[in-house]
């Protein structure tokens, strides 16, 4: 199991497009993934779950991945957050 602390840094936060990118990215991995924020823990592979976090810019999240390719999944999600969901281009 891998845990990472992430910060939502894109201007619009985890809105629909960013959430869809996250869920689509994670769907390619053979592991479970959860996000925790504001006292809630959700399935990070669920669009509705991620949207319910209502994570705006600056929100601190904890990512937990567990499974066959957990390292690759955690690295990919970290990179997506660091690229601000590719919204700056």
UniProtKB/TrEMBL annotation:
Keywords: Cytoplasm, Phosphotransferase system
InterPro entries, per database record: HPr (IPR050399), HPr-like (IPR000032), HPr-like_sf (IPR035895), PTS_HPr_His_P_site (IPR001020), PTS_HPr_Ser_P_site (IPR002114)
Principal place of residence: cytoplasm
Compartment annotation: Cytoplasm
Lineage top rank: taxon: Bacteria
Domain HPr per the UniProt entry, residue ranges: 1-88
Matches recorded under Pfam families: PTS-HPr
SUPFAM superfamilies named in the record: HPr-like (SSF55594)
NCBIfam families: PTS_HPr_family (TIGR01003)
Family according to the record: Belongs to the HPr family.
Name of the protein in question: HPr family phosphocarrier protein
């Amino acid at each position: 199991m891998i845990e990472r602390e992430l910060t939502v840094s894109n201007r619009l936060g985890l809105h629909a497009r960013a959430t869809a990118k996250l869920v689509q990215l994670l769907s390619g991995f053979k592991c479970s993934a959860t996000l925790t924020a504001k006292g809630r823990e959700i399935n990070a592979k669920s669009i509705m779950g991620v949207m319910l976090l209502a994570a705006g810019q600056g929100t601190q999240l904890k990512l937990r991945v567990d499974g066959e390719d957990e390292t690759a999944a955690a690295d990919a999600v970290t990179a997506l957050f660091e690229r601000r969901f590719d919204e700056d281009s």
